[in-house]
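Question (not urgent): is this output format expected?
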Amino acid sequence: MQLETKRLILRPWEQADAEELYCLARDPKVGPAAGWMVHTSVENSCEIIRTVLCAPETYAVVLKQSGRIIGSIGEFSSDAQVCANGSPELGYWLGSAYWGRGLMAEAIQAMLSRCFDDFGADTVWCSHFDGNDNSRRVQEKCGFLYHHTERDTRWLAASGKQILHYNCLTRAQYQAMRGDTGKRPYKVLLTGFDPFGGEVTNPAYEAVKLLPGTVCGARIIKQELPTVFSQSGQTLCSAIEQNEPDLVICVGQAGGSSGLLIERVAVNLRDARIADNAGNQPCDKPVVQGGPAAYFTKLPAKNIVSTIRAAGIPAYLSYSAGSYVCNDVFYTLMHLIETERPALTGGFIHVPYSSSQAAQKPSGTPGMSLDMIAQGLSCAVGQTLQTLADS
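Got this back:
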């Protein structure tokens, strides 16, 4: 059996591939991250082909342009503890020289078609070891949603890591990604602010920029907002009008917080402790003259918190988005939904200082890596999309 994509051929491994396999698998950046030992010789690689890579539905990933093997991918009965029914799981690795080109995502799509279309699977699983963020991003790009984490697994990972994060993709989600449902794929608008208050960076938009172009099959649209009263809301509304998203999540910085804050309430108040980036410092002014005192978020806030925490990332419910520009945008969004766009889902998330920012603050100031913040935002998007699909 041979599978083919635009750039790749997936074919069974052969004994003659041992030398090419060894050239890839001797790289210490490859095997340990995937849970297997670095290959020590061509003979070692030959033995792996004979005993491991000979399994059914296990393929060498070959680059069409050069004819060279660049990695491996296969389908097997999942090791996840929740998969007593033997649902298929995908395992894969890619030579480090070929990272960052979207090649493995292309191979995964071919295997997803194999599992769902040829085998009739209801759910397909993927997993990655704790800290393997490259693999996590690939899975997110392909539409997989975080499901659970298993510790002290039976895997004897060469890296010594025994924590596996499991992601899954259902048939309904897969069909939605391909447009098989007759509905267009979801569009998600994510916004973040430019730096303010003397900072040289803002983790809100920096983390948003790290998200892939698709999450769970939904197109991700990114927009930077100015940290300026009124102007930020106008920029947001223009982006919504231009892109017609199904979901809007606005993101802002909350320096001093120790985790992601899922905001529940937007208040009709502008009361600035410091001036915005245009020098405005309103005091006791409404966001919308004559508007309601407050709006509740349209995001599934509690479920988002649970999902982010399950991924090992601190997250909390928050009942005050403050009265600065973040709240200004939050209220503007919710007022727009309430008065003009009732089909739109939206809300606001605050994120901590980035690790680099916290390093410049007084001792004990909490911070979080941009990659972890981005992972939390991805969880929020995935959970909200799941809620929309179920509704």
